[in-house]
Amino acid sequence: MSDFTPPVSDFRFLIHNVIGLDTVADLPAFSETSPDLVDAILEEAGKFASSVLAPINRTGDQEGARLLEDGTVRTASGWKEAYAQFCEGGWQGISAPEAEGGMGLPILLGAAVAEMWQASNMAFALCPMLTAGAIEALGAHGSEDQRVLYLSRMISGEWTGTMNLTEPQAGSDLSKVRSMAVPTGDGTYKITGQKIFITYGDHDMTENIVHLVLARTPDAPAGVKGISLFIVPKFIVSDSGEIGARNDVTCVSLEHKLGIHASPTAVLSFGDQGGATGYLIGEEGKGLAYMFTMMNNARLAVGQQGVAISERAYQQALEYARNRKQGRDPQTGDDAPIIIHGDVQRMLMRMRSSTEAARALSLYAAAQLDLAHHLEDDKARANAQARADLLIPLVKAWSTDLGVDNASLGVQVHGGMGFIEETGAAQHLRDARIAPIYEGTNGIQALDFIGRKVTRDKAGALGALIADMRATIADVTNGDAKQAAGTLSNALDELGKSTAIVIERCSADDRMMQVLATPYARQAALCISGWLMLRAMSVASQNGVSDSFQAAKLKSCQFFFDQLLPEATFMATQIKNCTSIELHETQPLF
Amino acid sequence: MSDFTPPVSDFRFLIHNVIGLDTVADLPAFSETSPDLVDAILEEAGKFASSVLAPINRTGDQEGARLLEDGTVRTASGWKEAYAQFCEGGWQGISAPEAEGGMGLPILLGAAVAEMWQASNMAFALCPMLTAGAIEALGAHGSEDQRVLYLSRMISGEWTGTMNLTEPQAGSDLSKVRSMAVPTGDGTYKITGQKIFITYGDHDMTENIVHLVLARTPDAPAGVKGISLFIVPKFIVSDSGEIGARNDVTCVSLEHKLGIHASPTAVLSFGDQGGATGYLIGEEGKGLAYMFTMMNNARLAVGQQGVAISERAYQQALEYARNRKQGRDPQTGDDAPIIIHGDVQRMLMRMRSSTEAARALSLYAAAQLDLAHHLEDDKARANAQARADLLIPLVKAWSTDLGVDNASLGVQVHGGMGFIEETGAAQHLRDARIAPIYEGTNGIQALDFIGRKVTRDKAGALGALIADMRATIADVTNGDAKQAAGTLSNALDELGKSTAIVIERCSADDRMMQVLATPYARQAALCISGWLMLRAMSVASQNGVSDSFQAAKLKSCQFFFDQLLPEATFMATQIKNCTSIELHETQPLF
């Protein structure tokens, strides 16, 4: 088992010095978010993550969640107690409005805290992550009664929430949802159908679970416009909030998964006894649109899982490399830890540098969401929203791909011990592997980026961002950062060329868009996070941070520009070659 | 569960048309290796792999190998029967000399066949793979008596072999081996010590197991020169070959691993009852040198595991992508399989193209081993050996890295189903993850390449290979291949520059060598397999192969040059940047 050391100093550095807490804290909504408060929350969350969640990560993996004979799910040992402490701390409501019982803190801070939950125990953290999604959907579209009855109890963590979207035939393509919702005449609906891949679809940590369910009303049009969103509580709740009879929804099985064993992934059956009682959220036919309102936060949260697992895998690999003796020190001839080897250092630096870059990108995107919600000026708010929309598919896809790569490198650093489950390094790889898949596969993220976010927008939002990046480059004056600024400037030239190809070739050619999506999104992610690394480098070469933090940060940044950013050129070549070769233009590859 | 279709047509194409069977079959040793015989063996092996080994791959993973209370190991259901059939086919001895009961066929053909064993069932195929290593070590260094007593029974498969190298403190650094071998005066030794990570260290498929064990004799010098190699049979064998008493070696536990569950990875304890009887192979103090004689074949075999798992993962992903309907055909509006999406095709092409390139490289390296063993001219033999030595660390490192990447892509193509163990896609990733680690980590392979194979040799063997590659480029005349030849030529220019940096900077700087090793080895692997893809392209654009094979091969090659080979430029940039930045020259990164 490995310890988890919360990367609080990097969060503080990024929030205060790179992202600029002031831009967020100056928002009227966050007038009470002082730098001291931010630091105190980070410390407190770090403590909870390392002392409560991290110690049960490995045992949870071994034990897993189990479906009992009575059809209920038992979580792994320690889960229920940890969840109770999580609620006591008020953590579920960190970014929820104070008026509804939340802490009312910026999404920026909530994101930093969430990364620590995910790093310490991804299987546990999925429960609050899904509840947060349900809170957001219900908060935006629920009636006053629904808010009173469900929302406050979800924000407090008293009840958890689930998202019931997927069915066996309806995964990436939700237009194929078949679950039915038939009005009963008393304002409620009878829900029937089967939903799969329902995270924490059942568990024993709370008295009730609030399922949000996509289903089709009778006579609804085919496709996405016929889908509505319903509240289906596990136990019926009376108007006064008392828990009543069991609703007609049962967990029929749990999936046997590669990783996140302690997170119960349920098959839920609705209406085996005639129909589960469901309550319509908002209007009929708008279910999918409502889901979209929570998509940015959910994708950001999954992206952070990639950052988190990278951080955890890095810490464990670093610890092992410092302690495992094998071979000799060339100077002294003494037994030496494997970290002295340049190749081991390269692996560790890949992990560290990419993790820090992806963290910077995710926190920057989170800050854009705060600005998009709370800036006073309409135009400025729209711009921030456009920037968040642009960045979030990159956060999701790039960070989760990195999560897999870094967890795999973590195994490699361990040598043979990495393949042995007791070591715990392999668990990170198994856990990490789901993140590129769920909440929209990374292929879908890349398509969202190249299509909705760049091509349809004629690169407006991207162009504005690149202008900001160019301004940073022009502002950099000190030595090492100056050289990095030049490297980034060249990378932006190439991104400009790729973007021109994309705009020209993809606007009327969906197939070309699909082929270019993945390398283009990766090229953009590398450049934009390079920008944030340049800002970090620029600040860190000045001062105001501890010497050891400064030295480490400068090495991470330098490594990024020397060793990682050049992948953007590789991606640019892939893009160029796709369009220059006749074969690819005219013929599918299969 | 997924079916396995043996890629016999690609083997045939590569062996006959690209590697050139004639260069191997013309060797006097292989005068009977006719093209028809080669095809017949490939067909037969393919049948066995797909009908006997593939069907128990998934069940073996679920069931695993188990250590029983009596200290013996029970293999998974079907294992014993499959192994018996494997022996009946004579497959263990495919490349062993006919004089010792083998088939006496080229390593080239043995390698193709071995890839099919690994692709159909990696956990099973590890047993013959380890036995082959033991056969080679014993064949090269065993006494006449030892050959009679053990070797023939191992070649027939009647007994299996193991390699006992690793101890808890002695992994990559075998100089730290502590197991002891004390002479008893009757020519035998008493062996004591604990060995870990012993593949098929115990099992129930054969009556006896021949353990080859590294141990230290009393008064032996410290370090690698004090280590000797011993035969320690599980059951003592009389001079007439009768199986006698149980030797003092016991399996004390099996590792709980990420993958290859059906391959028992044993902790073996030698000498709990006073000492296991061991028989010295060759001379004292030469144990590690003897191990080195089998290293090329063993590393080639592990490299092939990477190719194999890539092939298997590709086939399964392709099948899924062709059948999983999600979304609509943009032309017809009908439900469409996900393979219509450009991004899915990109993932599948990455898998297919890299698999074919890595296969070509591994078979080419295998052919060099045949030439190195059997060419008549001393100089030509030495040149072939130098080329094999040069290529094999690349085969091992690059192919096994690809194995992990491709298995991971295979999971991704499956979407959510890929994360569910029942699908079987995740097993490939779990199985693949060991190959970059064992038989010398990929970091060690890269160091071997950059150090022993390039720098020490002042790029002599590499230079000769590059000259051959340039000659191919000059010979290419037809259209598409001509363009690819130009691309490869540029890549070779860059490889030349990287090599110049390596020779100049690494000859006297071990640390720099360690830092450059991984990107340099990868750059070289991409270029050299690119050469084989160019040869494949050149042949395939002519004729003599079926139209559908030809079309698919041309697409694979085209994709390699457009989308995969450009990674070599990325690696070249990493190398250049390592040496140009002051920080990296003078300071360790940690």
TrEMBL record, chains A, B:
GO MF term set: flavin adenine dinucleotide binding; oxidoreductase activity, acting on the CH-CH group of donors
Q: Boundaries of each Acyl-CoA oxidase/dehydrogenase middle domain copy?
A: 163-271
**Main enzyme class:** oxidoreductase
The organism's lineage is: Bacteria, Pseudomonadati, Pseudomonadota, Alphaproteobacteria, Rhodospirillales
Q: Which residues form the Acyl-CoA dehydrogenase/oxidase N-terminal domain?
A: 40-158
Organism superkingdom: Bacteria
Q: What is its EC number?
A: 1.3.99.41
- State whether keyword Oxidoreductase applies: yes
Q: Which residue range or ranges hold the Acyl-CoA dehydrogenase/oxidase C-terminal domain?
A: 285-447
Q: What cofactors are annotated for this protein?
A: FAD
Q: Which UniProt keywords apply?
A: FAD, Flavoprotein, Oxidoreductase
The similarity comment for this entry is: Belongs to the acyl-CoA dehydrogenase family.
Q: Which Gene3D superfamilies match?
A: Acyl-CoA dehydrogenase/oxidase, N-terminal domain, Butyryl-CoA Dehydrogenase, subunit A, domain 2, Butyryl-CoA Dehydrogenase, subunit A, domain 3
Query: What positions does the domain Acetyl-CoA dehydrogenase-like C-terminal occupy?
Result: 465-577
Enumerate the catalysed reactions.
Answer: 3-(methylsulfanyl)propanoyl-CoA + oxidized [electron-transfer flavoprotein] + H(+) = 3-(methylsulfanyl)acryloyl-CoA + reduced [electron-transfer flavoprotein]
Q: What is this protein called?
A: 3-methylmercaptopropionyl-CoA dehydrogenase
Its function? Answer: Involved in the assimilation of dimethylsulphoniopropionate (DMSP), an important compound in the fixation of carbon in marine phytoplankton, by mediating the conversion of 3-(methylthio)propanoyl-CoA (MMPA-CoA) to 3-(methylthio)acryloyl-CoA (MTA-CoA).
The record's annotation in Pfam families points to: Acyl-CoA_dh_1, Acyl-CoA_dh_C, Acyl-CoA_dh_M, Acyl-CoA_dh_N
